[in-house]
TrEMBL record:
This is Cu(I)/Ag(I) efflux system membrane fusion protein. The lineage of its organism: Bacteria, Pseudomonadati, Pseudomonadota, Betaproteobacteria, Neisseriales. Residues 333-393 form the CzcB-like C-terminal circularly permuted SH3-like domain. Keywords: Ion transport, Signal, Transport. GO terms for molecular function: transition metal ion binding; transmembrane transporter activity. It comes from the Bacteria. It comes from Vogesella indigofera. GO terms for cellular component: membrane; outer membrane-bounded periplasmic space.
Amino acid sequence: MNKQQCKLVALVVAVALASGGGSYWLARQGQAEHTASPAATAVGTTGGKVLYWYDPMVPNQHFDKPGKSPFMDMQLVAKYADEGGEAAGVKIDPGVVQNLGIRFAMVESKTLTEAVAAVATVGFNEREVAVIQARSAGFVQRVYARAPGDVVPAGAPIADLLVPEWAGAQQEYLAMRNTGDKALASAARERLRLTGMPESLISRVEQTGVTHPIVTISTPIGGVIQELDVRSGMTVGMGMTLARVNGLGSVWLEAAVPEAQAGRVRTGLPLVAQLTAYPGETFKGKVIAVLPQTDTDSRTLRVRIELPNRDGRLKPGMFAQVRLEAGTGKPAIMVPSEAIIRTGTRSIVLLAGDGGHFQPVEVQLGQEAGGKTVVLKGLEAGQKVVASGQFLIDSEASLKGVLARMAEGSAVPSPSSMPSNDKTAILNQASGKIEAIKPGEITLSHGPVASLGWGAMTMTFKLAKPELAAGLKPGDKVSFGFSQQGSDFVVQQLGKSGVTP
């Protein structure tokens, strides 16, 4: 890259950082096709089709016809179709792109996944519940040393019940069996079963040949006693609940997933849980249900997770943190989130072509996760986009008119390229009229400046010495010489026209 190109790039970056006006170019992309003007059918002096006219100092503003700029008191410049209009994007020398460190990324089609983290509490598995009831009316003869909260194994005794009705039914059965009538004995035995007598008690009567009206009520599963409503000596009725036991073979985690991520969680997803009680350990489980109601206060959705609890270490009420890889499960078009430029009214991505061509494309965005954003409309897999350095390209597009005029004057040495200790060695000469004089500065309407490629305009200059304006007043026609010092243009020589300064 030669010195002139370096100067052009430096000016692009400086103006972009100073004004931030380049993003307006991106905001206007996609509107050109709806704002066609009569200029689009005009033909310039070069024979090419004119897209519009513009002021090189204010390149964002377009005009339908030629004339004087309302901003800088200079003639408007034509923009030709063969120079690349808005529809053609912008072209930057590939060497400049490489030196600026602009990064690119490929548009991908892949499944979007995101690690969803949520807090949860351990609870009982409500599907492992045993309700122990009295099958017939009777009296409580004995209760065992049980209390709510006790953990009991399967088959643990709860209470002994005396059932008078069963005593008569058992005597009848034994009598029928002694008659040798198998049909009557079978009917009597069926009656015992229908009264609610367990099969184990009937077999015991058959083996011993005596009645057993007292039955021991036991729990069918192991777990924790949630309820115990039986006391010694009390009368119980048929179907009365004596106890309620909740199994501990597995537990549930009730996780609160933020509403914004709830759409990515589905039944069957595997996950990993960590409990405060067991730091450093992980427990694997899966989502068994996504409950259909959202908490209106916390804006979270309840997700039910099942974890095995073979050793009984997971206690209901414990606090846990869960992490699961959630996603839509369907492939989608994705780009790095940093590649997206949000203008406030639309989202834009710079599409990179061959030979340093860049085309702004308006996109419709979807979900964002892990530094990637889903593009619902506007891009296809395999395309290349700009991932960083968009503002440089943006500035290049907005200042193209300025750079073009600088390129035309490239054969004339610029004062800014001269050593800082020799600012007045080469002066830009011009003539014009004084519009206003203030302490330390002067406003001039001047003609073209050949050494800089400027057209006629009105602008304010700094005065190298206040006495340069002595004896002059607004309206006087003057000849002057000026140089550039940093971002200021400073008048070094000044005198009335026809008089050597």
